[in-house]
TrEMBL record:
Name this polypeptide is given: 3-methyl-2-oxobutanoate hydroxymethyltransferase
Cofactor note: Binds 1 Mg(2+) ion per subunit.
TM segment ranges: none
Biological source species: Cloacibacterium normanense
Needed cofactors: Mg(2+)
Gene coding for it: panB
Lineage: Bacteria, Pseudomonadati, Bacteroidota, Flavobacteriia, Flavobacteriales
Active site per the UniProt annotation: E189 (proton acceptor)
């Protein structure tokens, strides 16, 4: 019997056991109650309230503008809709990088005010003090290496990271540092598949990939991308399971026609 089928509430320990048992971990984003309820009912192991909410919910070009207050709001909505999945919330740009004490305060606010089960932060050795402060306070931390969208202006591109040997070596080193500090899992974003495989095999904590090949311990996608709500966004790593953009715009168009030609509401839809 799989870990997935026997567990009622997914915890950080569940994910570790799944890696040990070689059972793949599934993760999707959600930013609101209704979506979270559907994603949880679909059986995912973990739900990420990503700072990608800045893009798909608010229309920003990058993840940088979203605030801690806004992330807490989204996390509150998601937590209310979840019965089973582990809920992880991003700490947004500027809330943890420069000051471990600020990181702690941000993490405490997220956990206390939203009810999320863990936080995710981007970076390796350079944020070690912040990671330590959070974990020492009892806050579970998921790491994030590779393409780290909060550093997009430093990178200058969303292209694949760690193709060069020096960056790949640093990524492996950072993964081991995050493991030693006590992170319970690690997102690997947009790195070569062979490097992701090497990292996954060299650390004992689960790796969750996005654009990092099939050998990570799990996979994560942005919900809006996976169900095809984002027209025109087609990175190589994305598999669309629905085309909701077409479905929804078609339904709206039909509604507009029905109202205009007075076929909605009909007698059966009137009191």
């Amino acid at each position: 019997m799989s870990v997935h089928s026997e567990i009622k509430k997914v915890t950080t320990e569940t994910l570790r056991k799944m890696k040990f048992d070689k059972e793949k971990i599934t993760m999707l984003t959600a930013y609101d109650y209704t979506t979270a309820k559907m994603v949880d009912a679909g059986g995912v192991d973990a739900i990420l309230i990503g700072d990608s909410a800045a893009n798909v919910m608010a229309g920003h070009e990058t993840t940088l503008p979203i605030t801690l207050d806004q992330m807490i709001y989204h996390a509150q909505c998601v937590v209310r809709g979840v019965d089973r999945a582990l809920v992880v919330a991003d700490l947004p740009f500027g809330t943890y990088q420069s000051d471990p004490q600020k990181a702690l305060e941000s993490g405490v606010r997220m956990m206390k005010e939203s009810g999320a089960h863990a936080v995710k932060i981007e970076g390796g050795e350079e944020i070690a003090d912040s990671v330590s402060r959070l974990i020492n306070a009892g806050i579970p931390v998921m790491g994030h290496l590779g393409l780290t969208p909060q550093s997009i202006y430093q990178f200058g591109t969303y292209k694949v990271r760690a193709k060069e040997d020096s960056e790949a070596e640093k990524l492996i080193k950072d993964a081991k540092i995050l493991e030693e500090l006590g992170c319970f899992a690690l997102v690997l974003e947009k790195i070569p598949a062979d490097l992701a495989k090497k990292v996954s095999e060299s650390i004992s904590i689960p790796t969750i990939g996005i654009g990092a090949g099939p050998d990570c311990d799990g996979q994560v996608l942005v919900y809006h991308d996976m169900v095809g709500m984002n027209k025109g966004f087609s990175p190589k790593f994305l598999r669309r399971y629905l085309d909701l953009y077409t479905e929804i715009t078609g339904a709206v168009s039909q509604y507009v026609k029905d109202v205009k030609n007075v076929s909605f509401p009909n007698k059966n839809e009137s009191y």
